[in-house]
């Protein structure tokens, strides 16, 4: 373990180093976070270090650091803050989009957040105030996906715009910027991001056919799909 992990990071870093139960939880969560971040690059949802990922462990939010390529992250690079934004783990500077992540955690019960610059979703964010209801999986995100108005990245204004766009939703678009989804787990948050990008690509493809207008689902049809999705999958 590098010396920077031992210097100036307080009891939480020491707990992680010593391998206590809480530290092991954070170490496992960090490994999952890094894997998710790398997956976003492999799947073409981000380029370079654009986008960011976070996961909540108790009252600590582990988050990707600013400007570090995901393939270079190691267990020693664990980066964490409390819900006020105070750094409690690591020495790397957290992502510049930290205000946005923290706004999501403070607003509800999210345990993981994925933010990307996915191409089709970003394109849609420049065209409409809300993603048209092109597919029933709209219901998986809580309803029609809103576009949070543009604000400079990393600002409290952007964080507030995203918070409002996410009311009763698990995903939104960021105007001229990208996507943000959240979930109970990193896998769920990531799957919602991938689904949102796919729906944006679908709508762009359908709406590009000359002389034809895509058929959209009604609010009732989306609500019906939501009820059916609640019972989808294997039961524990």
Please tell me how large the radius of gyration is.
19 Å
**What's the helix-strand series?**
HHHEEEEHEHEHEEHH
| Count, helices | 8
Helix content: 40-55%
Per-chain topology:
Elements: H1 3-6, H2 10-18, H3 21-42, E1 52-57, E2 60-63, E3 80-82, E4 87-89, H4 98-107, E5 112-116, H5 119-125, E6 147-148, H6 156-165, E7 171-174, E8 178-183, H7 186-207, H8 219-229
Parallel strand pairs: 6-7
Antiparallel strand pairs: 1-2, 1-5, 2-3, 3-4, 5-8, 7-8
Keywords:
8 strands, 8-stranded mixed sheet, 40% helix, disordered N terminus, 236 residues
Notes on the structure:
With 236 residues, the protein is α+β, with helices and mostly antiparallel strands. It contains 8 helices and 8 strands; from the N terminus they run αααββββαβαβαββαα. The protein has helices at 3-6, 10-18, 21-42, 98-107, 119-125, 156-165, 186-207, 219-229, and strands at residues 52-57, 60-63, 80-82, 87-89, 112-116, 147-148, 171-174, 178-183. It has an 8-stranded mixed beta sheet with strand order 4-3-2-1-5-8-7-6, with helices on both faces. Helix 4 runs parallel beside helix 6 (156-165). The longest helix has 22 residues, at 21-42. It is globular, with a radius of gyration of 19 Å. The protein starts with a helix and ends in a 7-residue tail after the last helix. The relative contact order is 0.13.
